[in-house]
Design goal:
Elements: H1 15-45, E1 47-49, E2 61-68, E3 70-71, E4 74-75, E5 86-94, E6 100-104, E7 110-113, E8 117-120, H2 123-141, E9 147-152, H3 153-163, E10 166-170, E11 174-176, E12 181-183, E13 186-190, H4 192-200, H5 209-227, H6 230-233, H7 236-249, E14 250-253, H8 258-274, E15 283-287, E16 293-296, H9 299-311
Parallel strand pairs: 1-14, 2-9
Antiparallel strand pairs: 2-5, 3-4, 5-6, 7-8, 9-14, 10-13, 11-12, 15-16
Helix pairs in contact: 1-7, 3-4, 3-7, 4-5, 5-8
């Protein structure tokens, strides 16, 4: 009887290796399912609004971020009257060359509001909501807004508490009864209540609204640092709290969901890390006939500033130290 062909020896994968690979695959599946499920859940909670103008796109990606101050369900102005107001307005632009810029647009800036004439910028939100604010800013800056994001200030407290705290710095002692801000000179880890007071406070700065802009940008940077820290990113409980608090506090343009917000956060963090930019101002105390004291700008300077921002060539302010 002839011997059969030699049997090929099959290389065996050790059982521990196979088990490890299987466990890793299961973990990956669970993580992907977790992220996907959390994203769908958060997307479903975000309120959307028809805010974009449909204007021809400009190069790069532009986000308009508006902070609305609503207390007890009504927006409240400084004089105590109610009405829809954008208390904070920021423009975030990622240029085609990869440069990102975050600039505050003072709410008291005197602008042409389509259909209404010359008013302070935040009046556009009162007259026509997000859509009119978007159109007004597009005409003022020359940049087409691709994403509109409104953050309710009442939601800031919940977002900060969801990530535990944020680290904020101030250069003088403050005990402001109007905003509720109480801080001593230096940097402090603060919870949601004091973080909200930090961004709301208007009368503690010698430069008034301009000083508040810098504090608000500092808050944005501190929140992004905290939200992307390992203690938050790798903590499922914190992720659920953050997704819930964030979606409750947000209203965005149609088509702007969690992934677009993630790209916005990355662009904002890059912009803050690269250095500040500030819109040129001709007269910070320009007296108007009907709107009180406003911020006056020069048309040529504004065109040059936002043109340089659009193509990524805008020079940044020198950092202290």
């Amino acid at each position: 009887m002839r011997p059969g062909p030699p049997r090929r020896s099959r290389s065996r994968v050790p059982r521990p290796v196979r088990l490890t690979a299987t466990l890793m695959a299961l973990v990956l599946i669970v993580l992907l399912g977790w992220v996907g499920g959390l994203t769908l859940w958060a997307n479903g909670r975000i309120d959307h609004v028809d805010a974009l103008s449909g204007r021809e796109a400009t190069p790069g990606t532009t986000y308009l971020i508006a902070g609305s101050d609503s207390r007890g369900g009504q927006a409240v102005t400084d004089d105590g009257t109610t009405g829809q107001r954008a208390d904070t307005i920021m423009l975030l632009h990622k240029a085609p060359n990869g440069e990102s810029y975050l600039v505050s647009l003072p709410r008291d800036t005197l602008v042409d509001i389509p259909g209404h004439g010359k008013y302070k910028l935040n009046a556009a939100f009162a007259f026509g909501g997000p859509a009119l604010l978007v159109t007004t800013i597009e005409e003022f800056t020359g940049l087409t807004v691709d994403h509109f994001v409104e953050i309710g200030f009442d939601g800031v407290e919940g977002i900060v508490d969801a990530v535990g705290h944020v680290n904020l710095c101030i250069d003088h002692d403050v005990d402001d009864a109007r905003s509720g801000l109480k801080m001593t000179t230096g940097c402090h880890d603060v919870g949601g209540e004091q973080a909200l007071a930090f961004v709301r406070a208007r009368y503690i700065d010698p430069t008034a609204d301009i000083g508040r802009q810098k504090r608000q940008q500092q808050f944005v940077s501190a929140l992004l640092d905290r939200a992307t820290s390992p203690s938050v990113l790798l903590n499922p409980a914190s992720q659920v709290k953050l997704a819930g608090a964030g979606s409750d506090a947000l209203r965005t343009s149609n088509g702007t969901g969690v992934f677009a917000l993630g790209r916005m956060a990355l662009a904002a963090r890059s912009a803050m890390g690269a250095g500040a930019v500030q819109m040129p101002i001709k007269d910070p105390e320009y007296r108007t006939k009907h709107s009180g004291i406003a911020i006056l700008t020069d048309d040529a300077e504004i065109k040059q500033f936002f043109g340089a921002m659009a193509d990524g060539s805008l020079a940044r302010e020198k950092q202290d130290g």
